[in-house]
Amino acid sequence: MDESNITFHPSEGTENISMHRNISTQERVWEILTPLWVIMIISFLGFCENGIVLWCLCFQIKRNPFTAYITHLSIADISLLFCIFILSIEYIAGFGFAYGFYYYITTTLSIVFLLGYNTGLYLLTAISIERCLSIVYPIWYRCHRSQHQSAIVCAILWTLSFLMTIAEYLTCKDDSTKEQFDDANHCQAMLIFIWILTFLIFIPLMILSSLILVIRIHRNSLRPHSSKLYIIIVATVVVFLIFAMPMRLLYLLNYHHWSSLLSQQNHVTIVLSTVNSSINPLVYFFVGSSKNKRFKESLKVVLSRALADGLRPRSQEVGMSLDIAETIF
């Protein structure tokens, strides 16, 4: 055998291997960066949408008990979207998982992200339950509902969300100075408590009350305007269950450290959760807009129609203007 056949191309194989590695590395980079860019775009658009809705709720639309909940829900979504947008920038820029200053920024943003997520879950449950009570026990509800009940409930839910988020971080964070056995036991106990609170209390109550609202929507099919409020509640609950629940399931089934919020295995659920927080303003718009005047009415008119509280005495349903109906509370 000619020795030149053996010794003439030693570098060719090395070049092929190097080229293959470069192609694999580039594909790997694009697999990581593409979801991050998608998250950035969706979160930015959702942030703007919720910001517009929040501005209209605070300065353009007459307040009622339902708009108070929607205002706090928009704040929770804005917090979540802002944090995930900044985290995406950090990871694309290469600051993710860094120690020191960037580590604390990443941790803080992750905590606020989960705070917004938990608050959104609790608020949606409260909205569904309150509307359900107004249907099942209308007289009792009108007589016993206090003027500041929405504000009080929102404050309680924000406090609960804050305590749950901080407790989850303190018990399940990665801390090498703590005993691993005790740390694992505390984290496991905390996750079990979150399972019970989320999937045995809040989610069943949300689904049950939403089913009652669906029945109400079916009965009110001849009066579509009075059903807009219930359609919005049911739609936001369904969107939350489809898009937001997978993220919480992933973290509870296979909990990761807080610094891995945007790790590759979490990209799909983070994208879905971002969509959930961005889509609510679109629900308000399409439910509140008139089919014949869609994209022609002002946002104030559309939101006023969509978020109008339909709880009023039956005698006032005929012959009264929308302005009077909106000021019952």
TrEMBL record:
Protein keywords: Cell membrane, G-protein coupled receptor, Glycoprotein, Membrane, Receptor, Transducer, Transmembrane, Transmembrane helix
Record's GO cellular component terms: plasma membrane
Domain of life the protein comes from: Eukaryota
GO BP annotations listed: adenylate cyclase-activating G protein-coupled receptor signaling pathway; angiotensin-mediated vasodilation involved in regulation of systemic arterial blood pressure; G protein-coupled receptor signaling pathway; phospholipase C-activating angiotensin-activated signaling pathway; positive regulation of canonical NF-kappaB signal transduction; regulation of inflammatory response
UniProt xrefs under PROSITE patterns: G_PROTEIN_RECEP_F1_1, G_PROTEIN_RECEP_F1_2
Keyword Amino-acid biosynthesis: no
Subcellular location: Cell membrane
A single GO molecular function term of this UniProt record: angiotensin receptor activity
Coiled coil: none
Residue ranges of domain G-protein coupled receptors family 1 profile in the record: 49-284
Listed transmembrane segments: 36-57, 101-129, 150-170, 190-217, 229-247, 267-287
UniProt topology in membrane: Multi-pass membrane protein
Cross-referenced PANTHER family: MAS-RELATED G-PROTEIN COUPLED RECEPTOR, MAS-RELATED G-PROTEIN COUPLED RECEPTOR MEMBER X2
Family under the similarity heading: Belongs to the G-protein coupled receptor 1 family.
Protein name stated in the entry: MAS1 proto-onco, G protein-coupled receptor
Organism: Gallus gallus (Chicken)
